[in-house]
User: Fold DNA-binding response regulator from Streptomyces poonensis.
Amino acid sequence: MCADVIVAEDDEKQAELIRRYLEHEGHAVTVVGDGLTALERIRHHTPDLLVLDVMMPRADGLDVVRVLRAEHRDLPVLMLTARTTEDDLLLGLDLGADDYMTKPYSPRELMARVRTLLRRTRRPADPDPDPEPDTDTPLAVGTLVIDPARHEVTADGNPIECTPGEFRILVAMATEPGRVFTRQRLLEELHGFDRYIGNRTVDMHISNLRKKIEPDPRRPVRLLTVFGVGYKMADPGKSTRRAAP
Assistant:
């Protein structure tokens, strides 16, 4: 699976190490040392993946992701960060990063995550022997409405901005309200199965979603924790599908 990858990393030694590992797996790699150059290269030619350091000159990684998502680019982003606080990691995911790794990291684990992201974004359009329910029309669970065709979410009539990962989680859970989803099942919705992706990624997405769709995130009534198992979307009654306007 050869891919075009941009590596945005101002540490020359780190950038060279990442480049060598990526090229060893057959990928074409472009290395840039600052955020503005990364944006310029992406606008000139959209790669298959962006490996993005957070702390860079001219424009940091968070600003780069913010601009990319504002331009409605669905480019997969793997963020590298030396920041380890939960708020920093939540911010990266909230802005639209698909995955993150904290420094120091194993190059072999980095390559595993690269393979996972590329596999998810390049899934072949083969017939599904067990097709998922039709999601062409909006899903309504109480006053929460998810429109897959328009990639829109509203809660109590208010528009909600969701990252691609958050949106995939909502669609999966709204399709079967009341069903308990394990963290591993939600990881499969996000990335496909891969042992290198941690359960903490799911927890952070759920935490972000609660801040956006719950009346009180500290006392969730929509996205509920099933201790020791995972999460479920509360079923306020019968979930219905609304015809698209």
